[in-house]
Amino acid sequence: AAPNAAGAARCCGSVSANPEIVPVASFGSHSRFCASVPNSRSGCGTPMDWCAESHTAVDAQWLATSATGAPSAREQATAVWTGTEMIVWGGRSSVTLQTGGRYRPDTDSWTPTDTAGPWVPTARSEHVAVWTGSRMIVYGGVNGPGTVIYSDGGIYDPDGNTWSPMSSYLAMFDHKAAWAAGRMVIWGGLTPTGLAQGGRYDP
Predict the structure, then answer these.
(1) In what helix (H) or strand (E) does residue 199 lie, and over which residues does it extend?
(2) Dihedral of the CA atoms 138, 139, 144, 147 (nearest 10)?
(3) Residue 136 pLDDT more than 90?
(4) C-alpha angle with apex 144: 67 to 161, nearest 5 degrees?
(5) How far apart (Å, rounded) are the C-alpha atoms in residues 201 and 203?
(6) Comparing C-alpha atoms, which of 125, 78, 128, 133 is closest to residue 101?
(7) How far is CA 22 from the centre of its chain?
(8) In this predicted model, which residue has the larger pLDDT, 42 or 198?
């Protein structure tokens, strides 16, 4: 069925007694239709363009991501979205990991994160990560046996595939973090002596 007209756009030129609804744009499940129709409102004797938009339901589906170049299988890793890539880092399998990867959904491809630089964070899981708009900050976490709780982290720049250091704070793991007002805000989790509170980090 033709979409319903939705809102007058502007006065225009000639008019047909039986206007044809013409599709003018289509983007996947989204289409836009326009037609010139008589204007019955007093004070304007010219026809007007009327436009409507329709949305067609599309069956949701899963597609497998490429395994070529992907990080090894793991749990308790972190992931951030940069606007073009998902960056996955850390976590554990049989051991804790200090590796990661950058996944581009438009090309279905992976690029590994740096593991050789001097400031790559120690292998860990149950840490946090936030995206600042240009860099990823990783903080806290715990080693595999759970005997070391980390009070440090690192700042990852995907443009150069490099890590830089950050200042230490409280040793904590299983905490939460968000990027807010130009700072990483952390809260909760566990410390060597009990429950953690929080802090703000300005990179």
Answers:
(1) strand 198-201
(2) 170
(3) yes
(4) 50
(5) 6
(6) 78
(7) 36
(8) 198
| pLDDT tens digits, one per residue of 18-69 | 555 555 555 555 565 566 555 554 444 555 555 665 556 667 899 999 999 9
CB distance 89 to 100 below 8 Å: yes
Task: Assign 155 to helix, strand or coil.
Answer: strand
- 3-state class percentages of the chain: helix first, strand second, coil last, to nearest 5: 0, 40, 60
The residue assigned the tokens 């960056």 is 87
Alpha helices in the chain (DSSP H): none
Is the pLDDT assigned to residue 105 strictly greater than 80?
A: yes
- Are the C-beta atoms of residues 96 and 124 closer than 8 Å to each other? yes
Report the sign of the C-alpha dihedral through residues 122, 123, 129, 134, in that order: positive
Report the length, in residues, of the chain.
203
| Residue 178 to residue 199: CA distance in whole angstroms | 11
Amino acid at 152: D
Take residue 23 and report the two structure tokens written for it: 């599709």
